[in-house]
Amino acid sequence: MRSLVIEVEGLVKRYGETLAVAGISFTVERGEVFGLLGPNGAGKTTTVECLEGLRVPDSGEIRVLGEPPSPTNYALKARLGIQLQDSAFFPRLTVAETLSTFARFYPQARPVGELLELVALSEKRRSLVKDLSGGQRQRLAVALALVNDPELLILDEPTAGLDPQARHGLWDVIRAMQAEGKTVLLTTHYMEEAEALCGRVAIMDRGEIIALGAPTELIARLFKETAVELELTGKADLDDLSALPGVSRLVPEDDRIVLYTSDVPQTLAALTTRAAQGSLPLRDLIWRRASLEDVYLALTGRRIRE
Ligand code: ADP
Question: Atom 27 in ligand 1: which residue has the minimum CA distance?
Answer without folding.
Answer: 15
